[in-house]
Each structure stands twice: as structure tokens, then as C-alpha cells.
Amino acid sequence: MKKTVLRKYAKLIATKGVNLKKGDTAVIRADLDQPEFIKMLVEECYRAGAAKVEVEWGYAPLTKIHVRNRSVKTLSTVEDWEVAKLNHRAKTLPAMIYILSEDPDGQKGMNQEKNAKAISARMKVIKPIRDGMENKYKWCIAAVPGKAWAKKMFPGEPAGRAMEKLWEAILYTSRVDDDPVAAWDAHNADLKNRCDTLNSMNLVSLEYKSANGTDLKVGLIENALFLGGGEYTLGGEYFNPNIPTEEVFVSPKAGDAEGIVYSSKPLSYQGEVIDNFYIRFEGGKAVEWGAEKGAALLEKLITMDEGAAKLGECALVPQKSPICQSGLTFYNTLFDENAACHLALGMGFSNCIKDYDKYTLEECREMGINNSFVHEDFMIGTDDLSVVGVTKDGKRVQIFKDGNWAF
């Protein structure tokens, strides 16, 4: 891939992604797959005005080794220095950049029950600190190719060509063209207009139906707010949390969901793939589920904590989106969630309430924002999906028809 094009992508992440300004601090988390691109991204962060940029490297295969060789107690321990580091981040609020490239099957065979117990224990310490950072800092998730990921997507290609094709797919769906900044400004404007339209409807519920058996009704919080594209921190700084993104989303009312949904794409979770699955909700909670592949892992996800069995997000994504039109399954939620309408199990977003800045996080949760250690999107969009909104005065409004926006 030409360095000039990659430079545009790096600049897009630094400027439109986390919108770095003079004096900002940035932290980049990345795997070892693309060190040259990360170097380029660091340079663009400094060019955007950052005073300090840190890089935290990860190597996903180590997770599997650690889980196999450490005790649950050791895996569960959050060391004092880790707590100090988290508290420092909560105080200084650096812009966080997450660069994904991991192997979708990289943790296959890992003891997921052991890992889930450790994650649950660690999150009891970590989550309260993260809650204190909610809506206060800028962040962005983007991606670069990894060899195993590329071969998963393009198994018939030599490794080098598979990597090149994955680069092409990432850049295309991320709108890295002649002028990526202008493309994102136009895209954000379109998403904002759709959000404004939905927010003017005073919707109280959404009804999903598809020929694959999906038949679900989800209740909304009375003063729910649809969001999409760029967002603002509580301090008023604009940023784009996902590159790419196609969704308009809302956090539903926790405990208000009835019916059944069927997946339309594989879900990559904890380094394994869950595929061809369904979840049935009753009284707002998942009460039955099954999967052709990864059934045990799906159960670990849904039972991670009390909130993991409830919905934290409803997202609307048209089948006409660039990712869906590419015909590719990425086996990566950042991309696959932006190829189809999706739901999320677990944590909801407090900024999906009108005037959320006037409430505490606890008050937002009392209104219906779900609380959980996890937030995992799963795709339900199909070519015939219908989404109907019910308004406060009982009117029914067609929002999605045949998998695409009805307005």
C-alpha cells in the first residue's frame, strides 16, 4: 500500500478520530502487526499538536499462554501499579487510540471459563474507575491488517496479497479517498440529519421483523437520544469514536425487550468466532440461546454478569452501507457491526439520554441505561429487515424497510 495513502489514514485518525489539539496527550494501543504504520500515526499525532504520545504494544497470543499457565487468582489480580496507572488516566484524560489487527481465531482452544472468571474479578476493580471517565475523554477505534486476520478473510490468496486486499478494504470502508477529512465531514452531516429526524419522533419502542425468524420489540427510555458519527465529550470536544462507522444508535431501556433475534453475521468474541446463533428475550433478559458454532462461548458472554443478559444498544445500519456492499465478512466487530443493523448485550451509553450532562451516571442508569462489565455488538440486519418505531402517541413509523432507511 502506498505510503501517501497510509499517511492520509494516519492523519484522519489523529485529526478526525481523536481530534488532537495543541497540548493534548495521546495513548495508542496496538498489536505488533504494523509497527511502521504506528510510527506514522505517532508522527501525525505530534503534527496535530500532541505534547506527548505513548504507545502500548500488545501481542494477543500471550493471552492464551497466560490463561493456560496462571491460576485464576493470579489472572484476577489487579496490581497496585495497574490501579495507579488507571487512576492517573482518569485524572489526566489522554485521548485513547485503539488500533485493531488481531486474529479472529487467535484464542481458539483457550479455557474461556477460566478467562471469564478472571475478567469478571478484574472488572470489579477496573470498572468503577472507567465509570468515572465516562464521556470525559476523546477516543477512537480503527484497524490495520494482521497476517492471520487477512488470511481468514482471503484464504485463497498468498499472505502478501491477502494483506494488500485487507488494506484496500479497510481504507475503502473508512472513506480514505482524495480528501478523507471532507468525506467524513459530509458523512457526519448525513448521520446527524438522520439522528435529528429520529429524535423528533418521540419514539417509545422499536419493533424488528425479518423472514429469518427475528421478531423483537424493544422499549426505549422516555428521553432517549439517537446518536451517530461524531460525538462530544462533556467538555465540548468533538471526536469520532469509530473509523469506520455507519450506524445511528440508541441505548434501549434495560429490562424492556420481548421476542427473538437471529444473527446475520458471525461474531468475533474473545479471540473465537460465534456463528449462526439466536437469543430469545423475555422480561427484558436473555432467557434462551443457541449457536451452531461457539455455543459455550455465547453462554459465557450472556452470563458474564447480570447486565450482560440485557440489551445496551440498538443500532440502525443500512444494507447499502459501503461495508455491506463490499460483500466481505471481516470477522471483526468494528467492521461487521457497520455492515448491518445490530444489537449489543451489556453496557448502555449514558450520553444516549437527552441532557445527560445534567445527570449523574447512577441517575442515567436509574432511567434505564443498562450496567454491565461487557458491551458486545451482534449483527441482525438482513435484506428484508423491517424496523418500525412506535411513537408516544401510538403512531407507527416505518424506519427501516427491506434492510434500508425508509426515509
Summarize the structure.
The chain is 34% helix and 27% strand. It contains 13 helices and 20 strands.
- Amino- and carboxy-terminal Cα gap: 38 Å
Which stretches are low in confidence, meaning pLDDT under 50 for 5 or more residues running?
none
Radius of gyration: 20 Å
Based on secondary structure, the structural category is alpha+beta
Q: Summarize the amount of helix as a percent range.
A: 25-40%
Count of DSSP helices?
A: 13
Q: Report on the biggest sheet.
A: 9 strands, antiparallel
- How many β-strands, per DSSP? 20
Determine the strand fraction and express it as a percent band. 25-35%
Average pLDDT, all residues: 96
Outline type: globular
Quick tags:
single chain; 407 residues; alpha+beta; 9-stranded antiparallel beta sheet; 5-stranded antiparallel beta sheet
Description:
The protein is built from 13 helices and 20 strands. Helix 1 packs across helix 2, helix 5 crosses helix 6 (112-131) and helix 7 packs across helix 8. It is of the alpha+beta class. Strand 18 (386-391) and strand 19 (396-401) form a beta hairpin.
